[in-house]
Amino acid sequence: MSDLREAAVKVRENAHAPYSNFKVGAALRTASGAVFSGCNVENVAFPQGTCAEAGAIAAMVAAGEREIAEVYVVAGSDMPVTPCGGCRQKLAEFSGDLVSVTMATVAGKEQKMTMGDLLPGAFGAAHMQG
Ligand SMILES: O=c1ccn([C@H]2C[C@H](O)[C@@H](CO)O2)c(=O)[nH]1
Ligand SMILES: [Zn+2]
Questions:
Q1: What are the percentages of helix, strand and coil residues in the chain, rounded to 5?
Q2: pTM above the 0.95 mark?
């Protein structure tokens, strides 16, 4: 098992998902080689819940890192989980278009896409010039 998959599968066990019963784990590697992980944290006030990817990003930024090199997301579904629209934008803040995102199931099915595939034409700093 890759180290990223191992981290994502492990952190997924800590997910707080009593409302959807859909536990998600995310792990990312930064340019320095460090690995950060996060799980979804739901709330009884449903919109206050946060995704696994957001948790991993928060851990990365809290540790002083900002450059994502690779992402791995895992859930217990039959189909590999894909990051929601909001998480695509959150990941794009710290990832180039070529960053690989592996979407996976606990059973081991994997699908890979790049950030450019997941969020084509992403809104970025260049759009705010002028
Ligand atoms: O990539 C994804 C997709 C969904 N979820 C969470 C949000 C919510 O807690 C649950 C159901 O949508 O799964 C994630 O954490 N990451
Ligand atoms: Zn999300």
A1: 30, 25, 45
A2: yes
